[in-house]
Design goal:
With about 190 residues, the chain is an alpha/beta fold. Helix content is about 30%, strand content about 15%. It has 6 helices and 5 strands; from the N terminus they run H-H-H-E-E-H-E-H-E-E-H. Helix 1 packs across helix 3. The N and C termini lie far apart (about 80 Å).
Length: about 190
Amino acid sequence: MTTLVSQHFPFLRLPAELRNKIYALLLADPYHRIRGIFTPQITRVCRQLHDEAIPFLYSMEFRAHPSLLTSFPHYASEAWPVLSSSYISLIKNWRMWVRLDCDARYTKEDVTRAFSGMDSLIIDVYEASYKASGLHLLEKFSGIRGVKCAVVQGTVPDEMAVWLMKAMESEIGKEIPMWEGPEWDVWEDGNR
């Protein structure tokens, strides 16, 4: 009769730089995320792995809640919300869908407080019917400052998207003149 000898790989004996590359591949690599390979279980192996891997896990892009903003984020699906405020504070890369034809349940101050100083912010603007509503909702995002990489895309005029991205990427505290471009006239230009 043979006995099985279990051999454990000495993962913690690997140099920290190599462990970091493994964490990045398991938790933050876009190639794996696109294919649905998401392995946060490594953070549950032991305290040391948890402490080393958590920054990689929360370096990914998270989605902001459509009305609660950064206080109820989720990764890829609403089924994976982040509930701990200590972990929410680690998230620096955000994506938010903004629907122009719905009333927002947040103020300009809420948005400024939530997203200023982040590493990245992508705002996907959409509406049920093209030019069926005005652009006034996007003014709530005009107070955001200090974002390292801002993207505004979707059903928004290019000039306004560029203005809003520059405003969000400007330094915190800097005053930016309000948007003075053309506003959509939903009765003339829209589908009403």
